[in-house]
Amino acid sequence: MAIAQLSPGVVVNEVDLTTVVPSVLTTAGAYVGPFAWGPVNSIVPISTEPGMVATFGKPNTFNANSWFTAASFLAYGNNLNLVRAANTSTNNATSVTNTTGSANVQIQNASAFQFNYLGAGAANTYGPFVARYPGVLGNSITVSVIDGGANTIQFTDWQVPVSNVAGYNYANVALSGFFGTQPGTSYSASQLGAANDEIHIAVVDTGGLITGTQGTVLETFPFLSKAIDGIDKNGNSNYYKNVLFTNSAYVYAMDPVNYSATNATWGRATANTSFATLSGAQTISLAGGTEIYPTDADIVNAYDLFSDPVSSQVSLLMTGPWDTTVQQNAIQIASSRKDCVAFVSPPQSAVVNNAGNEQTSVTAWYNGLSSVTGNPSGSYGFADSGWKYMFDKYNNAYRWVPLNGDIAGLCVNTDSTNAPWWSPAGFNRGAIKNVIKLAWNPTQAQRNAIYPYGINPVASFPGNGTVLFGDKTMQVKPSAFDRINVRRLFIVLEQAIQKAAQYSLFEFNDAFTQAQFVALVTPFLAQVQGQRGITAFQVVCDSTNNTPAVINANQFVGDIYIQPARSINYIQLNFTAVGTGVNFSTVVGQA
Asked: Does the structure show a pLDDT above 80 at 22?
């Protein structure tokens, strides 16, 4: 490297050769459910069950077995990426009583509202407010708006000032106690000589569907502005539409509250603007929200949000109670990404109230499912044997729930206690949580029958609880990849080394770079070997695989040979009886 100096001196440069193989995320779950609330077709990270309730609502008879799939995963880990799927006919509740036209609208998420409605200036057909998300919960919401007109009572054809009505003042206005003083003129509007731009907004669970108690005030927004250019004391937008868009968990503002009377002046604050006031406090009810169960196409479209490994970094893809079409799509997503595993359970009908036919039904389901996945890509799928019965504390009921959420959770727990290359099965790491009973508790003979297919039994053992008793992937071809610990081992190795190798891009393919790559990868593999993930390895990156032809093609080759550690699936114990006085050294190995 040339020294960029024209006179004598010392130049100091730094060269960083301390690059290491980075750790990779292995505990992130992913799931698609038909939740009662929350954004549609948008990936939302959830870390706790209360967080899931706050974002996606409580379970109901419409979605309970799906809802508790996600909740079961959260019993083991705290990194779950959820997507709400909705039928295209599931609509948001709207305030159509304040306008005319069709009320049917589906606003899926914040991005859809921002690009289609937030900046709209013309009257819409949905009224001044709309529920933030599709679903029937929105029908429980009312929005109360108070401005400078709250001290005026509206009669049939005239208004009577407060001074003419004994005992009537702002303090008597419903919900005024949540805001303190009456709204008037904001500081930013007053600087332009404008007036009456402030409003209070309260969102109320009038029907009690959201909180369980009618009339609960969900959220309040004091001293907002009717002015599109209104700002608060911190310089942020205080325009009521923007504030609700950013901060409300329940509604969006669409148009001025009384469009015909207020639209002309509810806009930009100009010199000496006097914003029109409402004729008393306004209470606006939302209605028309619907909930229709999503189709397979709706579910598949939602799962496709996880198809890109760059935008969605997940490693455990659950399929809940979804049918074969969705399960096959999930396994194909996992095998295409090559950095996650899809978990599937048999249909409820195969194991719940199907006494005596469970083995036949589960095997038939698996054969139909593996007709697509019965190839090497099947190592990215993992099938269990059934459903569990658990308690729903939100509805004081019992629910049947598929086990694939728990199995993915066992992988998270194994990552925490050991490492991804350890098997999540068995009495040490395979205990299933929150089980009252299994829909099907396979016997030893039944386990012997289904396990060779790749169906991993979940069984209850007296004194040991309910346990995952298998670790086979859905790969048909016998190889090391027919075990989930080996599949997940290679996912970790491939992801980590790939991330480290990208720093070799655009460097020279010479002996120095080749040796640097070997020095980079070897300590990482040695660490995995020390943690019992592999028994031996070899890294080759030199002139034997980086030939002149490879170098001339601007390519770089690193060959990594791995001997994965294998989990024990079968134990044989031999007991030999010997005569009194016999020296054991004479019989050891002879039986």
From this structure: no
